[in-house]
Each structure stands twice: as C-alpha cells, then as structure tokens.
Amino acid sequence: MDKPQPGRTTLLIMVSPVPARIGQITKLMTQDSKMPRQAAISLYRARMKRYLIITGDDFGFSWERNEGVMEAFNKGAITSASLLLNCTGTEEGAAMFKSSQLCPGLHLNLTEGSPVGEFDYETLVSTEEVFRGKFALRKHLDLGEINPVEIKRELDSQIKKFIELVGRAPVYVDGHQHIHIHSKVVELFAAALKQHNIRITRFPVEINMAAKEWVNPEYMPFFLAMIEKAHVAKKVLDDYGIKTTDSFVGLSTMGRDMTPERLQKIILEAFEVAESQLSSDKRGFTTCELMTHPGYPTHRILGGFSWGSDDFGCSEDRIHEINVLSSPEMKDFYKQNNIELVSHSILLS
C-alpha cells in the first residue's frame, strides 16, 4: 500500500460488509481530511460506469415491426432485439440479425399464436391449437393444469428454432409478456438456458412501480403481481447461474406513456438505486435494461400471430417510441449522466 502524501489523509471507504465486494468497494482515496465520508462515497459512485441496454421487444412480429426496430437500431436508439418465432415477420427478422450488428435475443413465447414445437400438446394450447393467452395461461399454470413436459419441449423447440434461423444461439432470452418468471415456468426456463449455454435473461422489476401515476390503472395490478413473482424467480435464476442486469425499466413507459422526461426520471432512478446497493460488485459498473417496443403499425389481419395483431400492434404508439428514443433530449441525457448504450453482450464478460 502506498504511503499517504504529507498533508493529505488516506480515506478508507467500506460501504458494504459483504466480503466478496470489499475488494472493489473498499477504495483508498487521497482526499482532504475534512471531506465527509458520504461525499467520498458519492464521488466513488460517480466514477462508476453506467451501462444501459435498450431492448426492442417483439422483433419478427411483422415486416412493419421489423422495419421500425431496424430504424431504431440504425439511429442508435436501441442496442438489442428480442425475436418472436411464430409470427409473419420471423424469418425476415432472423435474416436482419445476420446482416447487422443488432444483438440477437429470443422472445420466448408461451402465450400467443401457434407453438413452434411439432408436438401434440394437450395442455399448453387451447382447442384451436394456439397458446391460451396472457391471462388464461397463467390461470391454468396456477391451477396446475399445464403439463411441465410440454413447457420443456416448447422451450427447447424455440431455442433450437432460433439457432436454425439465425445460425447461432441467442445472446439472451426473455419472455413475451414476462411469462419466463412465472413460478411454474422459471425453473424449466432456467434449466433450458443452462442446457444451451445461454447465460442472460430479463429481471422485469421496475422500482417504485406503484408510484408511476401516469400508467393506466387497468394495467397496474398485472404489473405489480408480475413484479412480485419476479422477485421470487430471481433466486431460481441465480441458482442456475443466469445473469440479469442490475436494474430494469420500461413497464411504465410503453407507447404514449413514453416521454423523454419520464424515461430520464426512471433511468436515473434505476441507476442511482443500483449504485446505492453497490450491485456492481467487482466490475466497476452498473447495468440497466430499458424495455421498448419500436415499430410501425402492423396490418390488423395480415401481420402478427396466426390471428393477426392487437390494438397496440396496429397503433402509431410504436412510431412514437422510435421518435422519443432517438430524440436529441435522450442523447444529451445519456452524455450528461455518464450513461453508455451497450448490448446484452456486456453481461458476458
């Protein structure tokens, strides 16, 4: 250890008792002897790098969605995209992965459209041979009416289909409508990722969600219940060695709910909370994922799943997201707050 210089005081900062973190968190700083301990801690945190992953969900939904996702990527507004495998634009989206630097992810889908696996599912699908839907599937899962073998087969089928189309495994896998963190799915999900040597997923917990007064109150019960399940699922993901970002945002800023001011508020809040919890461990940086839904309006009947597109898919809200994400206000915000846009690949290191 270097000797302190004359007239200076070596300030030892130990802000966490966790032994694994002491090497990084315990930092010797030569400062004025009158500097308050908290000020020194704040200075240390300010020097930590902030990495923001911006994910475009529902890639492959339609050619219109694909066009919007690629526009957002080319404008530097997103860094990764999650591909749906049972939609009209799936193969085009896969080809776009291969011809660009867009970070490839799989949007695991158990809730909408037709299954990818060529099996005679008896519980995972309805009598129409399509997935049961966002709420109906969760109900059947809660009642123990979905055969876990069928879930396992569909998980494996979607990962293999992605590899077949893209020519490589996805860098990460997240869940369409966050189905991957359901208590009856998460262990099967984590085991499938581990089997295919995929190490990254989404932890969809936006802090202070209940305080986001601009969110449609009809959506809030689902969000809050899903967040509660995600906290329980996190231990399973950790046990299987599946990584996530330190923080997550985007539940409260979908479609017209997205504004530069709201994005800036929730992103900064997420980083500050992550830094206060020192979740950067030995890396010297913190990470956050922003979930987005860029695109162009999809045709009501001709695009999307086997039955077409919903209202959100047909609306111009997704164009609105492209405009906000690529706005000068957001680019200035990133520069002013030491935020660097990266892809999920940062979590592989």
UniProtKB/TrEMBL annotation:
PANTHER family: CARBOHYDRATE DEACETYLASE, YDJC DEACETYLASE FAMILY MEMBER. Belongs to the YdjC deacetylase family. GO terms for biological process: carbohydrate metabolic process. Keywords: Carbohydrate metabolism, Hydrolase, Magnesium, Metal-binding. GO terms for molecular function: deacetylase activity; hydrolase activity; metal ion binding. This is Carbohydrate deacetylase. InterPro entries: Glyco_hydro/deAcase_b/a-brl, YdjC-like. Probably catalyzes the deacetylation of acetylated carbohydrates an important step in the degradation of oligosaccharides. The keyword Cytoplasm does not apply. It comes from Biomphalaria pfeifferi. The lineage of its organism: Eukaryota, Metazoa, Spiralia, Lophotrochozoa, Mollusca. Its cofactor is Mg(2+). SUPFAM superfamilies: Glycoside hydrolase/deacetylase. The keyword Hydrolase applies.
